[in-house]
Write a structure and sequence with these properties.
The complex is a heterodimer of chains A (about 280) and B (about 350).
Chain A: H1 18-41, H2 60-67, H3 69-102, H4 108-120, H5 123-136, H6 152-175, H7 179-187, H8 192-220, H9 224-229, H10 237-247, H11 251-280
Helix pairs in contact in A: 2-11, 3-6, 3-8, 3-10, 4-6, 6-8, 7-8, 8-11
Chain B: E1 7-16, E2 19-29, E3 34-38, H1 45-53, E4 60-65, E5 68-69, E6 80-83, H2 95-105, H3 110-123, H4 139-151, E7 157-161, H5 169-186, E8 189-194, H6 197-203, E9 206-211, E10 214-219, H7 221-226, H8 231-236, E11 241-247, E12 254-257, E13 261-264, E14 277-281, E15 286-290, E16 296-305, E17 309-316, E18 321-327, H9 328-336, E19 342-347, E20 353-356
Parallel strand pairs in B: 3-8, 3-9, 6-7, 7-8
Antiparallel strand pairs in B: 1-2, 1-4, 4-5, 9-10, 11-12, 11-14, 12-13, 14-20, 15-19, 16-17, 16-19, 17-18
Helix pairs in contact in B: 2-3, 2-4, 3-4
The chains are: A mainly alpha (about 280), B alpha+beta (about 350).
Bound molecules: adenosine-5'-triphosphate and magnesium ion.
């Protein structure tokens, strides 16, 4: 007779250990409680967003936020900046990644470190540095420049901090490229350019999409660096929210923030999907 | 043979830094043959193949294809195609698109590409799979895509790097035959890299045995097996028992051989004194009889059953073990004996060969 033996749970077998389940639940609550509260109270029928007393369900504040011209303007600015800086970040990131992957050159490790530096430098320092750089060299676009060119400084600043992230993601994707694939294409008559277009680029696609979405979300919710480079007529959404909060917290801000969370969430989900998509093929 | 070679490898040496991967290799490949590059891991087989394809440049020497020097010709302009060890099938293209890729690079008209692709897929029995993506194929099918993709370009020579190593044993045997048949239908020369001697013997018209970047012997399979150039080749091709010749001198009809003592060996006399020689005896050239008798006494060891025959291991008086091939009937009789039983070896001296330890 085979005796059924209860297997002892492994040290991290959280699905079977109550203590670990508790830790998991607490950590999740700790992480997401503020956001959930924010979202719930965006529907609270109360004049003050900080008001923790539930006064009934309403979507009024979404309507109000949508009718707030300066909030919408800030939102449009943010989206514009994010789109443009993402395009540049992905192109720059892809070039950087391919160069680092493909060629050996003197001081390459140093260069690799330099590229990754904006990722680890405290954002506040980067913000100050960018602001000082622009004013020292007189590179601020003059006031009154027509939209969207008045956003140039912010866009440049955003490219600076987001393209290293794109480069990292794309580089990781390149690591899994089978060099024999490249040789096979060449062997069949492809030129360097055709190899890149027909073989390397299709392999990179998930990395480009994931890197792009990462750059997009980073740009969309950046506050610190933007704060240093934005002027009165180039307010972005996070900066606008900040100034509104200083005034008073209204459910309108909750509503607007909820929309932003939603956008970020969807984009992140897509990015993650594409990243894992790339892995299970080949 | 006066056939003009399709590929001439002329005095090719390849160094990676101070390491010499290939040393002064000269080989001519004939039209329509299956040529095998055989050797142990790291001997430089792949490197030589990659030099022919143009992915590596020789440090010294030249490659000529159809009499034309290929030194300045990049891989995408060479009239050879390669089947890679990992197959390198493009994962984002369908089977048909993979096969069509090389033709598209040649800018052939679409209609012509279509008929050629269809024909190539038929040749490798993949016609029903033309719309599949590579991740929906088995390993053997992927390999056939790689084959079709290379062959559809009608190269002067098809280069194959360990084409069968990623397949399981049964499929490997089937593909051996299929590859040979395919080669006969298309008439393209194959240069095939392998470290499996049985694969090379079964498929190739001629075999080059490489060791540590040097060409040990170039011959057809039968010659290679019957008349190996030296002990390394004899040991690498098939099974062999090697006995060191400890003393021999010109003019003498006998020589002293390790484990066997002084025996009649006139062949050794042809070599100058002091030359390191070995006596090579194939397992099939030894007969085993139970009990004592005229011959070399030994004790019975393991019997490795192989179906129609067995490899019997016996131990000589000085502890050296020797492999003997026996047919099914004889091995059945031997298996009746206890391990350690006394047996006698009868060596067919007419088939035993005297070889130099190294021909280099
Ligand atoms: N790019 C390179 N740089 C340095 N050494 C190399 C390079 N390519 C190959 N070698 C060396 O050259 C030798 C021959 O390599 P090669 O790949 O030709 O071996 P092989 O005969 O194909 O072996 P295997 O059967 O294991 O594939 C090896 O010792 C290898 O380490
Ligand atoms: Mg190899």
């Amino acid at each position: 007779m085979a005796r059924r033996r209860r297997q002892r749970p492994g040290p991290f077998d959280y699905s079977r250990k109550l203590s670990l389940q508790m830790v998991f639940v607490l950590a999740t609550i700790f992480l997401y409680a503020p956001i959930i509260v924010l979202i719930i109270f965006s529907f609270n029928d109360s004049r003050r967003g900080g008001n923790v007393i539930w006064r009934g369900f309403t979507t009024d504040y979404y309507v109000k936020a949508a009718n707030n011209a300066s909030l919408i303007e800030a939102f449009t600015n943010s989206l514009t900046i994010a789109v443009i800086s993402t395009i540049f970040s992905v192109i720059l990131g892809a070039i950087t990644a391919v160069v680092l992957w493909r060629w050996r050159f003197p001081l390459k490790p140093g260069f690799e470190g330099l590229v990754a530096l904006p990722i680890v430098i405290p954002e506040i320092c980067l913000g100050v540095a960018v602001a000082v750089f622009f004013s020292y060299f007189g590179l601020y676009v003059p006031p009154g420049t027509p939209w969207p060119f008045n956003l140039t400084n912010i866009i440049i600043a955003h490219i600076t901090f987001s393209f290293p992230f794109a480069a990292m993601v794309i580089r990781t994707r390149l690591q899994s490229f089978n060099r024999e694939m490249e040789e096979a294409a060449k062997d069949l008559g492809a030129t360097e350019f055709q190899v890149f277009r027909d073989v390397i680029l299709p392999h990179l696609k998930p990395g480009l999409i994931a890197g792009g979405l990462l750059a997009f979300t980073l740009s969309l919710d950046d506050f610190v660096i933007t704060f240093f480079t934005s002027g009165p007529d180039t307010v972005t959404f996070p900066v606008k929210v900040y100034s509104m909060v200083r005034f008073s917290v209204t459910p309108e801000i909750n509503a607007a923030s909820t929309v932003l969370i939603l956008i970020t969430l969807v984009l992140t989900a897509i990015a993650m999907r594409y990243q894992s998509f790339g892995d299970d093929r080949q | 043979m006066t056939q003009t070679p399709i590929i001439s490898i002329r005095n090719v040496t390849k160094r990676f830094g101070s390491f010499t991967a290939l040393e002064d290799i000269s080989i001519d490949i004939r039209p329509g043959e299956i040529f095998a590059l055989l050797g142990p891991s790291g001997c430089g087989k792949s490197t030589l193949l990659r030099i022919i394809a143009g992915f590596e440049t020789p440090t010294e020497g030249d490659i000529l294809i159809d009499g034309k020097d290929m030194t300045e010709v990049p891989p995408n302009k060479r009239p050879v195609n390669m089947v890679f060890q990992s197959y390198a099938v493009f994962p984002h293209m369908s089977v048909a698109d993979n096969v069509a890729y090389g033709l598209k690079m040649d800018k052939l008209p679409a209609a012509e590409i279509k008929t050629k692709v269809a024909e190539a897929l038929k040749q490798v029995h993949l016609s029903e799979f033309s719309h599949r993506m590579p991740d929906q194929l088995s390993g053997g099918q992927r390999q056939r895509v790689a084959l079709a993709r290379a062959l559809v370009k009608r190269p002067r020579v098809l280069l194959l790097d360990e084409p069968l190593s990623a397949l399981d044993a049964k499929l490997r045997d089937a593909m051996r035959l299929e590859l040979v048949k395919l080669q006969q239908t298309v008439g393209v020369s194959f240069i095939m890299v392998t470290h499996d001697q049985s694969e090379a013997l079964a498929m190739a018209d001629r075999i080059a045995v490489l060791d540590q970047g040097r060409l040990r012997q170039l011959a057809d399979p039968v010659t290679l097996y019957r008349k190996p150039a030296d002990a390394f080749v004899a040991d690498f091709i098939g099974r062999v028992n090697l006995f060191e010749v400890t003393a021999h001198e010109p003019g003498s009809t006998t020589a002293t051989v390790a484990s066997l003592g002084e025996i009649a060996l006139a062949a050794a006399a042809a070599y100058p004194e002091g030359e390191a020689l070995v006596l090579a005896v194939r397992p099939e050239h030894i007969r085993l009889t139970a009990g004592e008798g005229p011959g070399v006494p030994a004790t019975l060891g393991d019997v490795a059953f192989q179906g129609d025959s067995s490899i019997v291991e016996v131990t000589l008086a000085d502890g050296r073990s020797v492999q003997v091939l026996e047919d099914a009937a004889e091995s059945a009789r031997l298996m009746q004996l206890d391990p350690g039983a006394i047996v006698t070896l009868e060596i067919d001296w007419t088939k035993a060969a005297i070889l130099r330890r190294s021909a280099l």
